[in-house]
Amino acid sequence: MADSTSTPSTPLLKDELDIVIPTIRNLDFLEMWRPFFQPYHLIIIQDGDPSKTIKVPEGFDYELHNRNDINRLLGPKASCISFKDSACRCFGFMLSKKKYIFTIDDDCFVAKDPSGKEINALEQHIKNLLTPSAPFFFNTLYDPYREGADFVCRCDYDNPERHPFPMCGMNLAFNRELIGPAMYFGLMGDGQPIGRYDDMWAGWCTKVIADHLGFGVKTGLPYIWHSKASNPFVNLRKEYNGIYWQEELIPFFQSATLPKDCTTVQKCYIELSKQVKVKLGKVDPYFNKLADAMVTWIEAWDELNPPSEAASPAEIPNGSTK
Length: 322
Known about the structure:
GO terms for molecular function: UDP-arabinopyranose mutase activity. The chain is α/β, with parallel strands linked by helices.
C-alpha cells in the first residue's frame, strides 16, 4: 500500500515538452484537458485579428503570440508564416526551446475508451515518443473490422508501396530536436490559393526526410474527440485546388530522393524545396512561391535556433506570458 505522505509522481517530460495551440477563439476547451495539460507550458498562436482578446482559463502556464508578434520577431521572413489558417501553429514550433512538441486544435476534446475512461492523449503521445517505432509498415487502423472501430484521419487507401503516413496537425507530437525544421506547415490561407492542406504538406515533406535520415514515425493511437468548429462547405472551397494538385503531389513525394550529403534536416529541407520548384512549379506558380517560403522558413528557424546556443525566453520579445 502506498505511503499517504508520498510525493505525487512528476508528469512525463514536464520540463521537456511544450503544447502548441493555434486559435481564433477563447480557449474554454482547455477546461476538459486541465487534468492532463496543466503541468505543461502552452504556446498559443492567435490567428486572425491581432486586436481580438483571447481568453485563457486561469491556472495554465502559457505564452500568447499574435500576428503582430510574428511580424515583429521575424521581420521580412514573417511572410513564411500562414495567416488565417491553422498552419500558423508552426510559429510555435519555431519559438519553443523544448525537446518535444505536442500540438492540438481548439475544437479537440478528451475521448473515452470503450469502458468510459477518459483517454490521456498527451500521455500516450509521450509514451510513443519515448519508445522506438517499428522498422516496418504496419496497419495503423489496428483491427478496422471490429465493432465500434474508427478510421484514421487523412489515410489514403490506394497508396502504392512507398507509404506516406496519415499525419493530422490537430493531434500530433514530435521530437522537435530531431525533426523540428521539417515541420513547416507551408503557405496556406489568406492570400494563397489553398488552405487546410498544411498538415498534409508537412507530413509529406517530413516522411521523405525521416526515411532519408532513418527516423521513425508512429500513427494510430492516441485518439481524441474532434468536434469540428469549421464549416465543411467553406473548408471545401479552401481545399479545392489541393484535391486536384494532390494527383501530382503524392507521386512527387513518393518518388523524391535526397543525396547522401543531406545529413541534417535543414539540408534535406532546402534540397526538397529545390525539387518542389523544379517539378511542382510547372503544376502551378504557387509552388514556386511555396518553395521560396520553405527556404525562408529554414533561415528563420536557424536565426531563432542557433546550433550552438538556444535563446532564453527573455530573448523572445513581445507576446504575452503567464
